[in-house]
């Protein structure tokens, strides 16, 4: 049997967008007999924050910065190119502190900055509320691009998150990554949309503008495909499971159905097919 | 929130974690808080398992209401599989003769219902005695034909009480539908749309015969399923899609803002 810690770690990992605090509250109530358990969840919170591209505001700033493995400096610190700063991040409280200047240098610095600029234009056109970041990775050999858009509406019992992540390799011109959507609806129920698409393309013009153009084309295509996915599930699998009405387009005459003698072949039902 | 009830917290968690894996989460919660085992098992709906009746060869559905220990009662034969030793426990798990006769009729009726609405699938109805009436559960399950690129499973669980009053019967119905849909392709990747929704209704109806009881229950379940099917359609294909559109806009946001402004201007100029 899994340990209590492994169990609650899996609950943290499965927390829907914007609902981590609620999940933690539930865990606290369920583990009052093991009060030390919550304090052992640091690694699970770190994993959640980095995988979900959690955003935080730097002290004294209104700009959101992204937590991800690509912007990690180690020792609980992360960097942000846009604001040229690094900061400490508390994975439990999701708060940033100890901001320091972090000036990007190295061979990918210019590409990262120009990509960031193009990304800003693109995000403004297609994301009502997104955070994004560009980070040189793997010893300054590649560039990681992250977009995250959240919309929380707990009063209406729904929350959603869109995540895009790309790795651009300037040597080969390849752009690879993934697109993920997570939507939770929980009024008198629990409904979840989870999607994941691996993307793989190449950028002929390895500039910030070239990269963003490739991203824009791919994301538009994906969202259109996703919209078709809704239609095909609705028209296909959903319709095939249960009809809205019988073929006759009439509700059942229960008085007749209920008074058939037991064991008698209920011909009416078959004949109507 | 130190005084929060562990059972409420467990239910809250199940309302938040991925509904596709409710059974896994339920088992995790039980291992974390064994005190809650009975309460959770009796109040959390899980996808229904199917078994074939040894006596009649027909398929039936398994749930907490036709279970006795590790055995399940077939609605078609009224026999437990594996057989249970005679004794107090099995007597309690089988309805009285009168209620069993209604249960048989209800199974026949919902078999017709299943064929007309589901065109396949499995149905089972289980009744049990109450001091002031009877209660029951109507179960329906359909799995989408495998082989196509999309998959789907529908489980309906309708639990009701029919309580005798002086001049009518009071029906309390709690209905849950568990609906899982998924599809994948090269262009789309993986798309999973899964969940469950629950609705309740209380109503008083005249029921002067067993036939009328079954007709009443049939109508209630039929109306509830129609309502819930519409609701599921709205949430799965309307709401979920709208939220994706709120996160990212396919079209240009500045263009749609310009269009909105232009529209406003036109309306404004017409008003002058």
TrEMBL record, chain A:
InterPro entries: CapZ_alpha, CapZ_alpha/beta, CapZ_alpha/beta_2, CapZ_alpha_1, F-actin_cap_asu_CS
One CC-aspect GO term: F-actin capping protein complex
Pfam family, one: F-actin_cap_A
GO BP annotations listed: actin cytoskeleton organization; barbed-end actin filament capping
Any one GO MF annotation of this record: actin filament binding
Bilayer-spanning residue ranges: none
Signal peptide: none
Family: Belongs to the F-actin-capping protein alpha subunit family.
Keyword Phosphoprotein: no
Quaternary structure note: Heterodimer of an alpha and a beta subunit.
Keywords tagged on the record: Actin capping, Actin-binding
Function in brief: F-actin-capping proteins bind in a Ca(2+)-independent manner to the fast growing ends of actin filaments (barbed end) thereby blocking the exchange of subunits at these ends. Unlike other capping proteins (such as gelsolin and severin), these proteins do not sever actin filaments.
This protein's name: F-actin-capping protein subunit alpha
Keyword Mitochondrion: no
TrEMBL record, chain B:
GO molecular function per UniProt: actin filament binding
Record localization: Cytoplasm, Cytoskeleton, Actin patch
PROSITE patterns: F_ACTIN_CAPPING_BETA
Keywords tagged on the record: Actin capping, Actin-binding, Cytoplasm, Cytoskeleton
Signal peptide annotation: none
Entry-linked Pfam families: F_actin_cap_B
Top-level taxon in the UniProt lineage: Eukaryota
Protein name per its UniProtKB record: F-actin-capping protein subunit beta
Gene Ontology cellular-component annotations: actin cortical patch; F-actin capping protein complex
Its biological purpose: F-actin-capping proteins bind in a Ca(2+)-independent manner to the fast growing ends of actin filaments (barbed end) thereby blocking the exchange of subunits at these ends. Unlike other capping proteins (such as gelsolin and severin), these proteins do not sever actin filaments.
UniProt subunit comment: Heterodimer of an alpha and a beta subunit.
An example Gene Ontology biological process: actin cytoskeleton organization
Similarity comment: family membership: Belongs to the F-actin-capping protein beta subunit family.
Organism annotation: Anthostomella pinea
């Amino acid at each position: 049997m899994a340990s209590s810690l492994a169990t609650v770690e899996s609950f943290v990992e499965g927390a829907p967008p914007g609902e981590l605090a609620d999940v933690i509250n539930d865990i606290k109530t369920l583990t009052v007999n093991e009060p030390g358990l919550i304090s052992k969840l640091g690694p699970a919170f770190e994993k959640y924050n980095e995988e979900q591209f959690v955003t935080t505001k730097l002290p004294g700033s209104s700009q959101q910065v992204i937590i991800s493995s690509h912007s990690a400096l180690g020792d609980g610190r992360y960097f942000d190119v846009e604001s040229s700063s690094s900061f400490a991040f508390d994975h439990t409280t999701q708060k940033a502190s100890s901001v320091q200047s972090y000036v990007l240098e190295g061979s990918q610095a210019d590409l990262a900055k120009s990509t960031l600029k193009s990304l800003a234009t693109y995000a403004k056109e297609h994301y009502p509320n997104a955070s994004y970041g560009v980070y040189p990775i793997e010893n300054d050999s590649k560039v990681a691009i992250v977009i995250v858009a959240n919309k929380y509406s707990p009063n209406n019992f729904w929350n959603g998150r869109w995540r895009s992540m790309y790795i651009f390799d300037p040597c080969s011109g390849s752009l690879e990554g993934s697109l993920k959507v997570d939507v939770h609806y929980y009024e008198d129920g629990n409904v979840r949309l989870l999607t994941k698409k691996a993307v793989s393309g190449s950028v002929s013009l390895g500039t910030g503008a070239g990269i963003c153009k490739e991203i824009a084309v791919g994301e538009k295509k994906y969202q259109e495909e996703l919209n078709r996915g809704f239609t095909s599930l609705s028209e296909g699998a959903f319709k095939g499971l249960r009809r809205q009405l019988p073929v006759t387009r009439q509700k059942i005459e229960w008085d007749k159905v209920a008074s058939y003698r037991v064991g008698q072949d209920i011909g009416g039902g078959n004949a109507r097919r | 929130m130190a005084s929060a009830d562990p059972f409420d917290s467990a239910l809250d968690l199940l309302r938040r974690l991925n509904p596709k894996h409710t059974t896994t989460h339920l088992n995790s919660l039980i291992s974390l808080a064994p005190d809650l085992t009975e309460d959770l098992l009796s109040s959390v709906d899980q996808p229904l398992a199917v078994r074939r009746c040894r006596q009649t060869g027909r398929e039936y559905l398994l749930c907490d209401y036709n279970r006795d220990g590790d055995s399940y009662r077939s609605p078609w034969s009224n026999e437990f599989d594996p057989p249970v030793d005679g004794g107090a426990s099995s007597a309690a798990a089988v309805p009285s003769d009168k209620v069993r006769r209604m249960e048989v009729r209800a199974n026949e009726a919902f078999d017709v219902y299943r064929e007309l609405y589901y065109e396949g699938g499995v149905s089972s109805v289980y009744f049990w005695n109450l001091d002031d009436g009877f209660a029951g559960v109507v179960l329906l399950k359909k799995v989408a034909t495998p082989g196509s690129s999309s998959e789907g499973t529908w489980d309906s669980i309708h639990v009701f009480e029919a309580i005798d009053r002086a001049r009518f019967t009071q029906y309390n119905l709690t209905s849950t539908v568990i609906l899982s849909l998924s599809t994948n392709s090269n262009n789309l990747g993986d798309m999973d749309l899964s969940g469950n929704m629950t609705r309740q209704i209380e109503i008083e109806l005249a029921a002067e015969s067993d036939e009328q009881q079954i007709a009443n229950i049939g109508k209630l379940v039929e109306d509830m399923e129609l309502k819930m099917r519409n609701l599921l359609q709205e949430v799965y294909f309307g709401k979920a899609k709208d939220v994706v559109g709120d996160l990212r806009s396919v079209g240009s946001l500045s263009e749609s803002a310009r269009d909105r402004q232009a529209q406003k201007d036109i309306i404004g100029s017409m008003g002058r």
